[in-house]
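Colleagues,

For the teaching module next term, I've prepared a clean inverse folding example: a structure given as C-alpha cells, and then the sequence designed for it. I'd like students to try predicting residues themselves before seeing the answer, so please don't circulate the second half yet.
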C-alpha cells in the first residue's frame, strides 16, 4: 500500500512540475519509467529528468 501511495505522489509531482515549468518550454515526459524513477528517488529525480529530457 505504501508503494501505491508513492506512485500516486510521484505522478502528482510530475504533473505539477509540468504545469509550473511548462511556461518556460521545458516538459518532462510522464511515462511509467519516469513515475517509478521519481517514486523511488523523490525530488532529485525530477530535476535529473529535466536535465536528461531537455539538455542532452
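(Answer key — instructors only)
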Amino acid at each position: 500500500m505504501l508503494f501505491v501511495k508513492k506512485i500516486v505522489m510521484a505522478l502528482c509531482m510530475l504533473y505539477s512540475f509540468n504545469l509550473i515549468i511548462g511556461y518556460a518550454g521545458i516538459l518532462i515526459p510522464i511515462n511509467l519509467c519516469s513515475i517509478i524513477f521519481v517514486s523511488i528517488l523523490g525530488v532529485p529525480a525530477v530535476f535529473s529528468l529535466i536535465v536528461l529530457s531537455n539538455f542532452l
